[in-house]
Amino acid sequence: MRGRALAATLIFAAFAAVPPLAYWANDPYLIVIASRIVAFAIAALALDLILGYGGMVSFGHAAFVGIGAYSVAILGQAGITDLMLQLLAAIVAASAFALVTGAISLRTRGVYFIMITLAFAQMAYFFFVSLSAYGGDDGMTLSSRSTLFGSDMLRDDGIFFYVSLGLLGALFLIATRIVGSRFGRVLRGSRENALRMNAIGFSPFRYQLVAYVISGAMASVAGVVLANQTKFVSPAFMNWHVSGELIVMVVLGGVGNLIGAVFGAVVALVLQEFLGAFTDHWQLWFGLILVGVTLASRDGVGGLVRRLTGGKR
Predict the structure, then answer these.
(1) Core-most of 20, 44, 195, 252, by most CB within 10 Å?
(2) Which of 42, 24, 17 lies closest to 266, judged by CA?
């Protein structure tokens, strides 16, 4: 636990140091990349809550990211630009979608659960493709970023980054409390042996459904951040390959390790930028690295580092 607390402190401290480093290096693109990493770190954190602790392999979590992004676009076009109101709308919409789809999906197990979450996500994808008022398949460009308490301070990349980082930090603390609570222990017990948990008086279905709704709501926050970071929304945000990328991030960081999910997002996106600068076929090398990490360590990059340095878990 101390090791993970130290890792979390170091990662968030490194995040906080990005804007000063970018200004010192006169490279504002660093802040843009860091903001994108924060958005995907929130989504990966949300996914790991159910995948790592609930054993629910969702292949449709990008749908919640897309719902969050479109909450910004739809409300913005209606004249509601306040970030807090957009976050509230995104969380409510994503929670409702998660409640309905989760109640159906959790009636299944294994590969069937994977496929039905994918099916629901694709349904959401094609629904937003059909919304011609919001750009349809082409998406739509946002006129500006959200306002915050009536101010347009989020137009500044540095301020926007720190607000996004604050959201990530708050969600990380909430997820940590959930995992460490009685609810989290029941969730892990349901992952290990649902029949035994049911026999001692706990309903695995209810706990898993609540966790699924919480995870979906958290992922929608990532969509709100991503929409503001890119100032663009598109159904592509909720396509199946985005869900696959989130799973890759969780695997890279170590399944069942909340700070590992954040670190996995950092590693995945930094590798994409680094490898993409050298070759157009960066996906090949990224895939080889992913295979190597997963074969060498079940705990992702963090576990591999510990193994190489002789450290303890």
Answers:
(1) 44
(2) 42
Determine the residue type at 82. Answer: D
Q: What is the mean pLDDT of residues 86-107?
A: 95
Rounded to whole angstroms, the Cα distance separating 207 from 301 reads: 30
pLDDT number for residue 104: 94
One-letter amino acid at 150 equals G
Is 56 inside a domain boundary?
yes
Q: Which of 236, 229, 217, 230 is nearest to 90 (CA)?
A: 217
What are the helix (H) ranges across the chain? 2-16, 18-25, 29-54, 62-77, 83-105, 111-129, 157-180, 182-192, 194-199, 204-230, 240-253, 258-276, 282-296, 300-309
> Residue 257: inside a domain, yes or no?
no
For residue 302, the model assigns a pLDDT of 65
Would 69 be classed as within a structural domain? yes
Q: Which domain holds residue 62?
A: 18-239
Structural domains in the chain (count):
1
pLDDT for position 208: 93
What mean pLDDT is predicted for residues 243-263?
Answer: 89
Q: Hey, what amino acid is at 145? A: R
If you write DSSP's letter for every residue of 126-164 in order, what string do you get?
HHHHT-GGGTGGG-EE-SSPPBBTTB-GGGSHHHHHHHH
Burial of 181 (0-12, 13-18, 19+ CB in 10 A): exposed
Residue 190 lies in a domain: yes
Tens of pLDDT along 128-155?
Answer: 998 888 888 888 888 888 988 888 888 8
pLDDT at 24 over 60: yes
